[in-house]
């Protein structure tokens, strides 16, 4: 078994997005995530968004672009936390979706900090 570079944590909004997709799309997204987890460095699969702490898992399936937004949490163990997802309809990633992922990230770390007190 290949060792994983990180563990993936899927938050509720990302889970709901994935559940809304067909089984074959979810299977392809999971396949791509496993490739990245095993150490494959490919910006077509996992890419940091400019001017942001947000990354996106990128899946192209039957000509449709799927994006699962996420961020790194390396404070205790190496985690990638999936926040939300979209079916991408334009060339540019919608800034409101990036802002949503950044807000989820901010709340995640605030809650984590509060738990330590």
Can you offer a commentary on this structure?
This protein has helices at about 10-20, 25-35, 95-115; strands spanning about 5-10, 45-50, 55-60, 65-75, 80-90. It is α+β, with helices and mostly antiparallel strands and about 120 residues long. It has a five-stranded mixed beta sheet. Strand 4 (about 65-75) and strand 5 form a beta hairpin. The radius of gyration is 14 Å and the shape is globular. The mean pLDDT is about 90.
Structural topology:
Blueprint: E1 7-10, H1 12-19, H2 23-37, E2 46-48, E3 55-61, E4 64-73, E5 79-88, H3 95-116
Summed up, what is this model?
This protein has 117 residues and is α+β, with helices and mostly antiparallel strands.
Question: Could you name the key traits of this structure?
Answer:
5-stranded mixed β-sheet; globular; 5 strands; alpha+beta; 117 residues; 29% strand
What is the typical, i.e. mean, pLDDT?
Answer: 92
Helix content: 25-40%
Instruction: Decide which structural class fits the backbone.
Output: alpha+beta
Instruction: Indicate the overall shape.
Output: globular
Task: Summarize the main sheet.
Answer: 5 strands, mixed
Task: Please compute the radius of gyration using only Cα atoms.
Answer: 14 Å
**What is the succession of H and E elements?**
EHHEEEEH
Q: Work out the number of β strands.
A: 5
